[in-house]
Amino acid sequence: MRYPIAIEQGGDDQAFGVVVPDLPGCFSAGDTLDEAVDNAKEAIEFWLETVIDDGGAVPLPKSIAEHQARQEFFGWVWAVVPVDLADLSDKAERVNITLPARVLRRIDAAAKACGESRSGFIAKKALAA
């Protein structure tokens, strides 16, 4: 999905403010325009994760033109932030991987020592990386 963001101009003594009109209450800021866009992506992902975790529906983004027509955004700069919802999904997915037997034994021993399943151990280590 690609979410439009409205960016309020910053300056030497004021950060760039960012609002995501399609996601109520989702906003961010940054000292530079690039930082504002990067922070907006993080805010959008956090907002969407929260909605998904709570079992809510993910709002579909509207076009920039629809948002630009709103008076409250007159004079703001617009950008689009791409978000891959697959990256936010916690749906289990079965995968088939090939590992040397020696490596698999080490993974199983480490998982057992932590009281975890092989899958859980691998997932935990991957997320930590």
How are the SSEs ordered, and which strands pair?
Blueprint: E1 2-8, E2 16-19, E3 27-30, H1 33-53, H2 64-68, E4 77-82, H3 101-114, H4 118-128
Antiparallel strand pairs: 1-2, 1-4, 2-3
Helix pairs in contact: 3-4
Count of helix runs: 4
The pLDDT mean sits at 91
Backbone shape: elongated
Q: Which sheet architecture does the biggest sheet show?
A: 4 strands, antiparallel
CATH class of the largest domain: Alpha Beta
% residues in beta strands: 15-25%
**N-to-C terminal Cα separation, in Å?**
26 Å
Structural class: alpha+beta
Rg over CA atoms, rounded to whole Å, is 20 Å
Number of strands: 4
Query: How many domain units?
Result: 2
Examine the secondary-structure arrangement and name the CATH architecture of the largest domain. 2-Layer Sandwich
Spatial strand sequence of the major β-sheet: 3-2-1-4
CATH fold assignment of the largest domain? Double Stranded RNA Binding Domain
Task: Give keywords.
129 residues; alpha+beta; Double Stranded RNA Binding Domain; 2 domains; 4-stranded antiparallel sheet; 4 helices; 40% helix; elongated
Describe the structure in your own words.
The protein has 129 residues and is α+β, with helices and mostly antiparallel strands. It folds into 2 domains: 2-88, Double Stranded RNA Binding Domain; 93-129. The chain contains 4 helices and 4 strands; from the N terminus they run E-E-E-H-H-E-H-H. A 4-stranded antiparallel beta sheet has the order 3-2-1-4. It is elongated and about 60 Å long. It starts with a strand and ends with a helix. The model has no long low-confidence stretch (mean pLDDT 91).
